[in-house]
Amino acid sequence: MAKNILDSSLQRFLRRPYGLKDLTKKRKTNLFLLFLFCIVGFLVTLTFTPPISRDALTHHLAIPKRYLLHGGIYEIPELIFSYYPMNLDLLYFIPLWFGNDILPKFIHLSFGLGTSWLIFVYLEKRLGRNWGLTGALFFLTTPIIVSLASTAYVDLGVTFFTTISLLLLLSWTKTNELKTIILAGIFAGLAAGTKYNGLLTIFLLTCFTPFIVLHSHKPISSKRAIGLASLFFLCAILAVSPWLIRNYIWTGNPIYPLFQSLFANEGSPLTQGMNPFLIRKLAYDESLWQTLLIPIRIFFEGQDNDPKYFDGVLNPFILLFALTAFLPNYSIPSFKTEKKLFFWFIILFLLFAFVQRVIRIRYIVPVLPFLIILSILGLYNIKSYLMTLRCYSRMATFFPTLLLLAALSLNGLYMVRYWQKIRPLQYLSGQTDRTAFITRFWPEYTLINWANKNLAQSSTILAVFLGNRGYYFDRPVEFDLKSGRSLLCSTIKEQDSAKNISDSLTKSGISHILLRKDLFGTWCWEHLDAMERKRLTDFFNNHTQELNATSTHSLFALKKI
Hints:
Blueprint: H1 2-15, H2 20-47, H3 54-60, H4 62-70, H5 87-97, H6 103-127, H7 129-141, H8 143-149, H9 155-175, H10 178-192, H11 198-213, H12 222-251, H13 260-263, H14 276-284, H15 288-292, H16 294-301, H17 316-324, H18 336-356, H19 368-388, H20 395-422, H21 424-428, H22 434-441, H23 445-454, E1 461-464, E2 477-479, E3 481-482, E4 485-486, H24 487-494, H25 498-507, E5 512-516, H26 517-527, H27 530-543, E6 544-549, E7 553-558
Parallel strand pairs: 1-2, 1-5
Antiparallel strand pairs: 3-4, 5-7, 6-7
């Protein structure tokens, strides 16, 4: 009798809203939430440091700062990336106005968090909360996302806008509301207005829209499907049109500097892009097969700050898991159309990006959310497959969990190395000040900081071998290399004396020279003959004064004679 009472009590407990199974799920949910909280804290801590990423210093912060110093938007022909779309860069303009250059990094991070939320919502509705949290966690810990989230770049903005645009199109098949198509088009346009690779989003989703709407629950004619695709395209173009109009007025090419062979005129110099296959061959001596396998290699060989290895890091498990999303007979039927759509969007986006320019992993980040979604579906498929095999049913939970832990371990190892590289707590604790923190990554900052404090506002600095990193200059700066032409090199070659070199630079408005010594010395030996090197030595000895120097850089003032 006691046994019957115990069995009856146990059954009642299991039927309660929070039975043993529910408690296990709740513990898993709490564990995932704890991990996500820790990851967000990790990224926020990194983001509190001063800007040090290359493109932020050359482009995403530097151009808005130039606009601030100038008093408005103006054309900067010598910096070709100043013609790129600037949706996020204009957002960065606001905190820069108030002297805050850390808040732009938080703006960029917010788009990464927003994308993880979109992944969570999509997966939660289809697989459940824990699968959604798994997807969000996998996305946020992927190495390229970790490195981008703490920078003032724009790639996470493109990713967010692309993801929400495609997911809105999918939601239209259930709602059939016209505003959904309009919003999807606007978000696609916002992606293109953030970075040019967002134009691929507009093109691909415009092509996909007829096929998506034809799969709605209500019958729809082909004519109406094409009309909805046209509406999507129109909304996208209107959203990106301010940047297209600006570039057309300035250069005659709305998407300058892309496709200059179609738009070149007297007012916009033609710039020919070299075939990316040829660039890989010449720069890295790659075989044709190595180049063709890049879409696979990027998952296994990526390295930060190395263009040969795609200047970023992915996780190979993303590819492996995504492939299992297409296991036969174990997929959720309702996912078949969506999986095919994600698959073709990923493939075509990679293909177009691959043939148009030398690949960088951050250029293809807009497809990463869909790869993550497919990866989680793949893990779900593995679990479902094992559940169908009685002899392996006990492995149905253990094996997918083991695979996920292996994937997250690779992400974790990268996060540890990245933390050790940045060392944010040294800065946040006051152990390292702002100048020392930035100088650890960019040694020229010591002299830039000195020049900002000691040179007159009217001074114009010629920066030689500084890689266009102009953000930290508070004085007007001209970079030596413009449109493939070196001002200093051409001046040395064209003038027949040191005095004439000085006079020519002064007439160009240059008052100071800041150069990196090792690269400058190597360049002199490779590009100047003996007489030209003698003139250059005479110029620096007799017509300049070294104001300050470090072990790597020197700052000179041109003498007024």
